[in-house]
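Consider a concrete sample entry:
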Amino acid sequence: MNSPYSGDGADAEASSRPTIRPAQRRATASHSQPLPSRRELRRREAAAASATGAPTAVYSDAPPIQQDTTVSHPVASEPQPAGRGGDGGRAHRSRRHDRRPVEREPLGPVRGTIRTFGELCITAGLILILFVVWQLWWTDIAANRDNEVLADELTEDWSNQDPNQLPEDPDEPIVADPVGRNEAFGIFYIPRFGDDYYRTVAEGVDLEPVLNRMGLGRYPNSAMPGDVGNFSIAGHRVTYGKPLNQIAELRPGDEIVVQTKDGFYTYTFRNFDIILPDAVEVLAPVPDMPESKGKDRILTMTACNPMFSARERYVAYAELTDWTPAQEGAPESISGSKAYEKVSKKGGA
């Protein structure tokens, strides 16, 4: 049987059909030209986007691009690429140089007044705090230092003087000699106030210089230590060394020793009272009995009451129960105390 595609016609049709290549040949051609990697594709896309100005695609598996935030000075001989640091870099630098300090809105009269008042209140508060620190802390330090110096000078002066002649009756105390105004003449020891407590006593009750710098002050016209009558003194309860700070701690039977050039006068505390500032009858030879002369030797100590107030007066009464001449040394109640040891190192008894 003859084929319908035989002869010349078959040859012509065969030549017009497409040529089919074997699969092996396609595989060979594929291996000879490998496909580009993902990194290469990204590089090409970035290059194309840079050339056209289109945004570059960001792939999730690509590392983040770290931008250098440091400001560097451009080198004149090294021009910036147009796509990366050309006009954009100059605009960024111009924005940085064009920054101006923000102008504050002016304060109105109300706000200005409130602000000024607040600053004045803060300043006043600081001044008040400094005043309190000075009043409650520094005045104590200064007064205690002055008291130590004065006690040293007093005992050193006593060591260069001869005591007064003893009376025939050994139980009769020598009465301390009067001194001039604002002049120290004795030293107080009160064991109840502490083993190291001692304060000088001077003539007068003026704040300056007696009560603020010299310790205790004797009321003018009151009795001297050892004398019949009322030996009356005053002292601060707070600030300026606060010599009578613990006056309310005294208990009946507590001893109060007063040292002078002639010896030691031991007064024993009896009772106390709280009075108004104008109740001056407590300073009489017999307290609260201005008309009576009396025969007792009394010590009256006065201080402000309550603490940090001058509304009232706290009054402590004591009576002379013993006296020791300077030649015999300090009484047992203070002889071994730190206070007397410190005072006697400059002379004393």
In short: The longest strand covers residues 312-325. Strands lie at 184-189, 199-203, 216-218, 229-234, 255-259, 263-275, 297-305, 312-325. The longest helix spans residues 109-159.
